[in-house]
Design a protein that fits this description.
alpha/beta; 4-stranded parallel β-sheet; two-stranded antiparallel ribbon; 8 helices; globular
Length: 193
């Protein structure tokens, strides 16, 4: 097997769960007088640190909870997989969309984030509320058993703050699988054949 094929096969078997870092976007890295440490403070695994070379990420320690991603003001950190905007665009195609996470692949969802930690900031929740005025179910049924389950409290806090900012949001955090209300997408005539 050639090296590129071997690399692709290994990526498929063990996808990267770590966030990626773009130091050129980091406010503290770009401006020495800036003392931002939001991502470092948010990381429960201490996978982020500041050293002589600037912001550093220990990808082996990163569990992919996206707590750092949610608080970074300059988007210096990126989640593995599709972006939040790509996931929201995929959800917009459904009448009552259900957002899930990649940590529970067998669950019913119209689109998935690597971790719901991407929503652990009120701005992300407000964006969801503005885009999905008719409703969005966020599947948190697996958070209790997930290694990144600690992020659920931050997602709930962001949700509570969003409810203060957006009048009558139609977003629901779902903990009970029976309350999920997943409806499989209908196939068009073209897709059927």
């Amino acid at each position: 097997m050639t090296a590129p094929l071997r690399h692709m096969a290994l990526d498929a078997l063990a996808p990267d769960r770590a966030v990626s870092l773009d130091r050129s976007r980091c406010a503290r890295h770009r401006c020495g007088a800036n003392a931002c440490s939001a991502c470092i403070d948010a990381c429960p695994e201490e996978a982020l640190s500041w050293g002589e070379g600037g912001l550093a990420l220990e990808s082996g320690a990163c569990t992919g909870c996206l707590a750092c991603f949610a608080v970074c003001p300059t988007a210096a950190l990126a989640a593995p997989g599709p972006s939040l905007l790509q996931v929201l665009a995929a959800l917009a195609e459904h009448e009552m969309p259900v957002l899930g996470c990649s940590g529970r692949p067998g669950s019913e969802a119209h689109a998935r984030l690597p971790c719901l930690g991407a929503l652990a900031h009120s701005e992300a929740m407000v964006l969801c509320a503005l885009v999905f005025k008719d409703g969005l179910h966020i599947d948190m049924t697996a958070c209790n058993t997930c290694p990144n389950g600690h992020i659920a409290a931050k997602v709930e806090a962001a949700f509570d703050l969003m409810r203060e900012l957006v009048p009558s949001p139609a977003i629901k955090l779902i903990r009970d699988p029976e309350a999920l209300g997943f409806q499989p997408p209908a196939l068009s005539r073209r897709q059927l054949f």
